[in-house]
Structure prediction request, 216 residues.
Amino acid sequence: MNQTIKLALVDDHKLFRGGLRSLIESISDRYVVAFEADNGLDLQQKLDSQNPPDIILIDVNMPEMNGFETVEWLSQHFPNIRILVLSMIEKEETVVKMLKLGVKGYLCKDAEPSEFKEALSSVYSKGYYYTDFVTGKLIHSLKNDGVQSDFYDINEREREFLKLACSEMTYNQIADQMCLSPKTIDGYRMSLFEKFNIKSRVGLVLWAIKNGLIEY
Prediction:
């Protein structure tokens, strides 16, 4: 028997929550909406620490306690709950700030039902869901940022590679920029993947943000 996946909806628009609940219930019997909340304060009152939801779907703009404040509180008190943001806000700084706070995905409210279904499944099974929209915003915002110099045993060339890997350049372009062979660049890439236990370039960028290697 498939395990039940408990969800919580945090959004101050009751009509949207109702539509979202109906969509969730139509996707699969596995998903159960445990409760709904108007904002972060309401969420705090309704959360059962002995039986917390697996995933919280949350908006950014809410009265009394907004999405940023709520995610920060959840990260401190319920770090194992996976958070998927559903918002109409597409501003680069909002997306990146939410990712830095630890959300597992960011989806626009006008997304297709099929994409929402994929997001739910991915957040639960893989622990994250990042669309091209999110990674594009993320990488663009980091293309000119610097990297901290005192973290782990990353040497100067690896730090330079990491900075360029957080841009829109291809690996071959990075090799040209650093005056190195593609094989050497591949060596840097695999070295960082191994050090940070990362399997993709997007994962490397997100890991760099989360651990402060890249300053936003």
